[in-house]
């Protein structure tokens, strides 16, 4: 329903009312604005709710100050065909007039919160709390002292201008009649043109329908495949959660066994671009620090997670959580994204994949510590040959590195000897 159609519905309600109104004594359909003007039209459009202040006129919308809120209310009344003037609590009313009071939130930025109360036929003040909320009546007390949460804008005296509303409705209907007449004059020509175009459209439609069927069948297959992949990836993600300390210590033990030197699991702080992070890492014990000047990254460190924090807040490891995911289901790319930077420790990923497969096979949400250690020992024993090969490759890389270092030093020594000989030659030539 368009905004114009909603306004017409509200005007129909206004024309059917007798003001000042007798108010219901229970619940009311709508918000405080609808209740105050006496509209029983229900707007279920949450994206463009007509009873937001200023939305009827759309000239000052949303209002941001008390003065703009007052102007927006007056413009809304003008569009609805309601005569509106600023008033006071004490002003006497004329026939068919009623009084409302407007409040607005000018304290919180971008709040746009407002509230409207109205005076009933019996002179008592009432209002509706929130949308479809309870109706509250608080007697003949000044409502300015009743509402202390929002800022007072103004009292208004309202009167439905039935003649103005009738003219607007008449003009709308007149425009509709003009449009229908224009449409009839050109209908015959349009019908002939449509017949010619229809044949062309049918032929094109048949070709497009064939193409669409082929395309839809392929797209449907792709969608079904992606849905299956996403479902499986979400299942893997749910089983990839581990207790951070428990799995961190197990991974540290595994890396220690493979690398031949002690690695440890650490939860600590680091700084990066003036921001502070909590990080979980597996690091060589010799390089362990209490605090790191930058985010730990590189091929020689396993970074399990990092989380930006405000050091002035009370955020701690307990509030971040102890459950650590190793995979995330990406429903956009339909891939399984890893949450861990493994660096050079490729075998850690293979070990974690075995643990997740084990949890999937036996439908386990958590693996006990003793069983985790047994699985790690089995993983190492099943890869003895790979383990030995890994050591040999590592030793070979070290030897190659040493050879390159020796060659570099030998080259530097030869260059220094040549410089010494050239210097002696110049000295002898100069003195002898």
Please write out the topology:
Blueprint: H1 3-16, H2 32-37, H3 66-80, E1 82-87, E2 98-104, E3 114-119, E4 125-128, E5 135-137, E6 151-160, H4 162-185, H5 187-239, E7 241-243, H6 244-259, E8 263-272, E9 275-284, E10 291-292, E11 302-309, H7 317-320, E12 323-325, E13 327-330, E14 335-338, H8 346-362, H9 369-381, H10 384-431
How does this structure look, described?
The chain has 432 residues and is α+β, with helices and mostly antiparallel strands. Helices cover 49% and strands 19% of the residues. It has 10 helices and 14 strands. The chain has helices spanning 3-16, 32-37, 66-80, 162-185, 187-239, 244-259, 317-320, 346-362, 369-381, 384-431; strands spanning 82-87, 98-104, 114-119, 125-128, 135-137, 151-160, 241-243, 263-272, 275-284, 291-292, 302-309, 323-325, 327-330, 335-338. It has a 6-stranded antiparallel β-sheet with strand order 1-6-2-3-4-5. Strands 10-8-9-11 form a 4-stranded mixed β-sheet. A two-stranded antiparallel ribbon has the order 7-12. A hairpin with a 4-residue loop joins strand 13 and strand 14. Helix 6 (244-259) packs parallel to helix 9. The longest helix has 53 residues, at 187-239.
Which structural class do you get from the secondary structure elements? alpha+beta
Task: Please state how the strands of the largest beta sheet are arranged side by side.
Answer: 1-6-2-3-4-5
Q: Roughly how many Å apart are the termini? A: 110 Å
SS field, number of helical segments:
10
Using the alpha-carbon principal axes, give the shape.
Answer: elongated
Unreliable stretches (pLDDT < 50, length at least 5) are none
Our Rg estimate from Cα atoms comes to: 39 Å
Q: What is the helix fraction of residues, given as a range?
A: 40-55%
Element order, helices and strands?
HHHEEEEEEHHEHEEEEHEEEHHH
* Residues in β-strands, percent: 15-25%
Mean pLDDT: 84
**Sheet bearing the most strands, described?**
6 strands, antiparallel
Number of beta-strand segments: 14
